[in-house]
């Protein structure tokens, strides 16, 4: 039985859990792979949970009152717990006797008694278990069932000096199954029971909590660590997701650390003297290390014999001996492991515990020609777990022991200068020719990662890293792997990755060109899937099926060459997080590299100048450290730093989306950015307070990124948004939707809005869960990050994939709530329930009455409003509609306009997807741009609602953009007609609907301007390269003047049913000339040739049988 079946059994028959009080439950913390939540409140706090341990089962309720409040749940729990064994009796601690009648009424053999082994289930509070915790753990492990109830916040108040996680009685039992009572109050309220395990809780919280528990166990009983000297420890460098600091000095240097690898555990102390200086810490460490296996013996290398008495005094079976497999823990210095590093790594991987002590700075001074990261003996073992002893001397002093894992912005640093590696990789390489391939950008964020190939603006497309004992190189397009123009670099790369082993290079499927090219490296290359016996593995980033095995492969000393882009993945995964969900990043993130969803222009890029690598190379972590020093310590930024700030803003936002909160390298960056935000504050961007400096931009992006990805966003909200007016809300708003969508994504309006930072729960219909649907908060979908001046934040909308029935949604900046339907969706009677939201002014033709609109709807409090007509939806700020008296008249005009748009395009009058206009304070380009939605500036949006003014002045710009949306590639000749044929719809609408003279609709339609375009084009030699925009439009205007709009409708209609249309411009222009000629029954070849079109002789011959249009307007220029 899986977790989901367990969950359904435990909540069988329940629709909700009503935590009414007046009691206050404890929030529970879950760790490990077996624990799962049963009841989760609106704040994502777990109030009930279940788990398995050994052969047994356990259920934990966050307050003893739950026994009375939830009798059905208790009966379900006991029945589920009984299933783990064949013993029928249920024992009940006296403190829980209120449950006896409930269980007996369900024919359960329940009795009040002390705990005894022969029971099938035991029900107890969390306070009375102390005398028999070991017995209860054994009972659980051997198949017994436990129901434990209680709260821990009161105990925490009464025992502030004690470690709640380890010393609260209930935790001494429940923690073996990954459930902890916490000191936090659980918020009361009615909790719906979803059909699946509630999963809005962050999975990462499990890993975070596991590390915190480990940390507290390792530092238990210690208030400070006094590094007095005269010894000098090494600073440690941490990478990956498992390593975490135990001691961090005032400079942010890590002097002690711990980690896990495989089934084992490791502790590293930055100097051997620590064994004598910190005896309590050493005992804690050995206790923790022993927990990873059942073997009791502790072996001690002769060099560390000073620790023997300390361990023996704590009843450890400790002996000085050479390393052997059957030990539970081995204590060794970092210098003596060189001859048996493989054995130690295998020991660790299989569950052994290692305590490694030593410093590396002296070795570095004596071995300057060697690579400390991979050649220093201790690093050959510790690095597989993400801990490296560095050449940097650790500063001495007294280090306080904080209650949580230490983190500091000062810990953000780069761990190595990769100049020598780059010399090898770039030998004989002066440039990177990417040809016509569109690559993604690579984010280089790890302390041991480095850029290799960059654009002139420092965007990376090739990068490398050291991971454990191995190496990795990533190229941001898979076809780079077989690119002849990169042959020299690729051969250098494969040799660098092989690192002198002369081993077998395995090349993954579909990389035949890479195999051919890399075979020139003089290494043996073979087409094969991943195998552990390879020296280097070459693959793409599109599959993560073996990412754990590959991580281990690299960590233990092998090489990885991986290629792939992510921009296509972003396009097809609506609302997906490329940092966490893109297959390649599940592997690469831990190595300090990530492939981003944006793309880079193809081209020829210079290779880095090795001489400038240390002084001028851009590195994410290095620049972060510089800006922190600037904000927090007043240090000046260099010109190079200033130049890269805009890029850093975007990269910070992307990096934060990775969300590995359990990772020390990530948490140090979060600590840095949080310190910056709290110290400097966030600029309050608006049209009246625009952001012009790159430093202000950085602060804005970082604030938004932190809020979106922080474990405590509410604490940041006041720093980011100063004015936060409270708007009246509605509760449990039901939205009913019918959907019949063609082959395009569609937004569905709800008429509801979320205020900035406001969170709400949405209950979704089961039939759309996991089917590509999404919830979108916000209509302003333009990313304006490329603008020099910002009038709003760059990204102000959020997408949430509908992967479960109950979703929590929010947007830092607030926004209208939309359901986003995938292509080809057909559903009827969908019902959505929004727990809390703000009503927005929302007019729907055919549903909203004018009186209703005027009297109430237009006054709805949300700052954004929508008007939905037959074929178009307009979204503008509410202040623009407050005085709108006759939305029906606006609807009438726009219904006519949109029918005319359809008429010219020769498509049905009812659009398969309604067009959308969104008016924003700032957009990505110009005053307007096409797309879905069509974006325009706020002032242009207000023009949409005044029929009288539209009839006087026209709406050329809006029609131009609607025309763009009607353009079709089969009759478009890019780039010539891109800004030309869209104007046909502007002309048609003004002719047929608005009935405004063309010369008043647009300045360029005046005769003098039209003639000027023709004459200049003819005078210039009728060069097709200059046949663009208004000049090109003249060709179509002349056709329209002669043959009327009906000809265009017939031409467009013909193309709807046409196949095998040429893809090149010359072929398409000839096809258009032939089609138009056929429609009007005239030979138009001479006319098009007069315009400089490359009409082929075969087409001329084909059209020669038709009457010629000999007196066409261009004949006069013959």
Task: Output the structural class.
Answer: alpha/beta
CATH superfamily of the largest domain: Peptidase M60, enhancin-like domain 1
Name the average pLDDT.
92
Count of discrete domains? 6
Major sheet summary line = 8 strands, antiparallel
Q: What overall geometry do the principal axes of the alpha carbons give?
A: globular
Low-confidence stretches: 200-205
From the 3D structure, determine the CATH topology of the largest domain: Jelly Rolls
- Work out the helix count: 41
Q: Name the helicity range.
A: 25-40%
Rg, alpha carbons: 35 Å
Domain Peptidase M60: 745-1044
GO molecular function, one term: transmembrane transporter binding
Pfam family, one: M60-like_N
Family: Belongs to the TCAF family.
Which features does this protein show?
7-stranded mixed sheet, 34% helix, single chain, 8-stranded antiparallel sheet, 1118 residues, alpha/beta, 6 domains, 41 helices
Please provide a written account of the structure.
- Belongs to the TCAF family.
- Residues 745-1044 form the Peptidase M60 domain.
- This is Peptidase M60 domain-containing protein.
- GO terms for molecular function: transmembrane transporter binding.
- The chain has 1118 residues and is α/β, with parallel strands linked by helices.
- It folds into 6 domains: 3-201, no CATH class; 212-406, no CATH class; 427-607, no CATH class; 611-723, no CATH class; 730-956, Peptidase M60, enhancin-like domain 1 (Jelly Rolls, Sandwich), CATH 2.60.120.1250; 967-1117, Orthogonal Bundle (Neutral Protease, domain 2), CATH 1.10.390.30.
- It is built from 41 helices and 47 strands.
- The strands form 11 sheets. Strands 34, 35, 36, 37, 38, 39, 40 and 41 form an 8-stranded antiparallel beta sheet that branches. Strands 3-4-5-9-8-6-7 form a 7-stranded mixed beta sheet, sandwiched between helices. A 7-stranded mixed beta sheet has the order 14-15-16-20-19-17-18, sandwiched between helices.
- Strand 3 (36-40) and strand 4 (46-53) form a beta hairpin.
- Helix 25 packs parallel to helix 27 and helix 38 (1029-1056) crosses helix 39 (1065-1080).
- The radius of gyration is 35 Å and the shape is globular.
């Amino acid at each position: 039985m899986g977790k989901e079946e367990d969950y359904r059994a435990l909540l069988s028959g329940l629709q909700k859990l009503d935590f009414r009080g007046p009691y206050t439950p404890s929030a529970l913390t879950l760790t490990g792979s077996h624990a799962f939540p049963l009841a989760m409140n609106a704040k994502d706090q777990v109030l009930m949970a279940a788990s398995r341990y050994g052969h047994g089962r356990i259920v934990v309720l966050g307050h003893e009152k739950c026994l009375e409040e939830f009798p059905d749940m208790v009966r379900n729990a006991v029945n589920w717990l009984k299933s783990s064994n064949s013993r029928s009796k249920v024992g009940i601690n006296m403190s829980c006797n209120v449950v006896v009648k409930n269980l007996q009424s369900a024919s359960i053999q329940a009795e009040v008694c002390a705990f005894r082994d022969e029971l099938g289930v035991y029900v107890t509070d969390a306070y009375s278990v102390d005398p028999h915790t070991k017995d209860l753990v054994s009972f659980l492990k051997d198949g017994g069932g436990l129901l434990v109830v209680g709260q821990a916040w009161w105990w925490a108040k009464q025992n502030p000096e004690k470690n709640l996680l380890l010393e609260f009685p209930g935790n001494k039992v429940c923690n073996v199954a990954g459930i902890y009572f916490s000191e936090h109050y659980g918020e009361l309220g009615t909790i719906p029971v979803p059909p699946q395990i509630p999963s809005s809780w962050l999975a990462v919280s499990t890993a975070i909590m596991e590390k915190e528990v480990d940390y507290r166990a390792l530092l238990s009983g210690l208030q400070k660590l006094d590094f007095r000297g005269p010894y000098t420890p090494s600073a440690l460098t941490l990478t990956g997701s498992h390593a975490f600091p135990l001691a961090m000095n005032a400079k942010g240097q890590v002097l002690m650390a711990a980690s896990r690898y495989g089934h084992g555990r490791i502790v590293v102390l930055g100097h051997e003297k620590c064994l004598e200086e910190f005896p309590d810490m050493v005992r804690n460490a050995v206790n923790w290390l022993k927990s990873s296996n059942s073997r009791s013996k502790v072996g001690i290398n002769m060099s560390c014999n000073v620790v023997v008495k300390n361990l023996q005094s704590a009843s450890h079976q400790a002996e000085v001996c050479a390393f052997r497999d059957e030990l539970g823990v081995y204590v060794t210095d970092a210098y003596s492991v060189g001859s048996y590093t493989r054995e130690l790594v295998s020991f660790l991987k299989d569950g052994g515990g290692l305590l490694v002590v030593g410093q590396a700075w002296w070795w570095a001074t004596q071995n300057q020609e060697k690579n400390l990261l991979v050649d220093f003996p201790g690093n050959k073992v510790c690095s597989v777990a993400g801990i490296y002893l560095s050449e940097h001397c650790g500063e001495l002093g007294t280090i306080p022991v904080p209650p949580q894992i230490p983190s500091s912005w000062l810990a953000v640093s780069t761990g190595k200068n990769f100049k020598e590696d780059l010399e090898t990789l770039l030998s004989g390489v002066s440039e990177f020719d990417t040809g016509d391939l569109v690559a993604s950008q690579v984010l280089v964020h790890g302390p041991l990662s480095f850029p290799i190939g960059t654009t002139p603006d420092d965007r990376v497309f090739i990068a490398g890293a050291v991971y454990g004992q191995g190496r990795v190189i990533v190229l941001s397009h898979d076809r780079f792997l077989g690119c002849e123009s990169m042959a020299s670099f690729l051969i250098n790369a494969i040799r660098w990755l092989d690192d002198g082993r002369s081993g077998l290079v395995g090349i993954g499927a579909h990389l035949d060109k890479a195999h051919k090219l890399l075979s020139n490296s003089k290494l043996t290359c073979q087409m094969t899937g991943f195998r552990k016996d390879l020296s280097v593995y070459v693959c793409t980033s599109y599959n993560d099926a073996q990412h754990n095995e590959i991580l281990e492969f690299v960590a233990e000393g092998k090489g990885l060459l991986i290629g792939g882009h992510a921009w296509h993945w972003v396009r097809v995964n609506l609302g997906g997080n490329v940092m966490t969900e893109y297959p390649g990043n599940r592997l690469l993130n831990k190595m300090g590299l990530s492939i981003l969803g944006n793309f880079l222009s193809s081209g020829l890029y210079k290779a880095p100048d090795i001489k400038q690598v240390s002084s001028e190379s851009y590195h994410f972590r290095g620049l972060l450290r510089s800006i922190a020093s600037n904000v927090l310590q007043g240090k000046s930024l260099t010109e190079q730093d200033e130049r890269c700030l805009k890029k850093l803003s975007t990269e910070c936002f992307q990096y934060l989306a990775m969300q590995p909160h359990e990772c020390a390298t990530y948490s140090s960056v979060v600590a840095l950015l949080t310190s910056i935000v709290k110290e400097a504050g966030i600029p309050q961007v608006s049209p009246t307070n625009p952001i012009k400096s790159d430093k202000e931009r950085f602060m804005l992006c970082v604030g938004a990124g932190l809020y979106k990805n922080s474990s405590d966003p509410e604490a940041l909200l006041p720093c980011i948004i100063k004015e936060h007016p409270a708007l009246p809300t509605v509760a449990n708003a039901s939205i009913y939707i019918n959907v019949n969508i063609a082959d395009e994504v569609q937004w569905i309006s709800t008429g509801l809005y979320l205020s900035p930072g406001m969170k709400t729960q949405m209950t979704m219909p089961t039939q759309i869960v996991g089917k590509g649907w999404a919830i979108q908060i916000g209509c302003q979908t333009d990313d304006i990050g490329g603008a020099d001046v910002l009038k709003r934040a760059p990204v102000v909308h959020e997408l949430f994939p509908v992967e479960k029935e109950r979703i929590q949604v929010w947007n830092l900046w607030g926004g209208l709530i939309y359901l986003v339907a995938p292509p080809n969706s057909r559903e009827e009677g969908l019902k959505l329930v929004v727990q809390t939201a703000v009503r927005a002014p929302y007019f729907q033709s055919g549903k909203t009455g004018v009186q209703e609109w005027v009297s109430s709807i237009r006054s709805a409090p949300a700052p954004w409003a929508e008007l939905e007509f037959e074929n178009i939806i307009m979204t503008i700020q509410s202040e623009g509609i407050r005085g709108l008296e006759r939305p029906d008249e606006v609807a009438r005009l726009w219904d006519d306009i949109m029918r005319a748009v359809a008429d010219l395009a020769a498509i049905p009058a009812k659009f398969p997807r309604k067009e959308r206009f969104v008016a924003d304070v700032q957009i990505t380009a110009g005053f307007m741009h096409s797309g879905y939605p069509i974006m325009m500036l706020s002032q242009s949006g207000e023009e949409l609602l005044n029929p009288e003014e539209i009839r006087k002045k026209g709406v050329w710009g809006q029609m131009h953009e609607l025309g763009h949306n009607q353009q079709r590639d089969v009759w478009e000749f890019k780039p010539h007609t891109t800004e030309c044929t869209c104007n046909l719809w502007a002309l048609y609408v003004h002719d047929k609907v608005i009935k405004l003279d063309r010369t008043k609709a647009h300045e360029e339609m005046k005769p003098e301007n039209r003639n000027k375009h023709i004459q200049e084009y003819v005078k210039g030699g009728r060069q097709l390269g200059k046949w663009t925009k208004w000049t090109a439009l003249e060709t179509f205007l002349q056709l329209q003047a002669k043959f009327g709009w009906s000809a265009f409708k017939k031409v467009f209609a013909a193309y709807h049913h046409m196949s095998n249309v040429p893809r090149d411009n010359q072929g398409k222009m000839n096809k258009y000339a032939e089609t138009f000629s056929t429609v009007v029954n005239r030979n138009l070849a001479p006319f098009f040739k007069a315009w400089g079109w490359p009409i082929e002789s075969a087409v001329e011959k084909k059209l020669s049988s038709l009457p010629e249009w000999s007196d066409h307007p261009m004949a006069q220029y013959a």
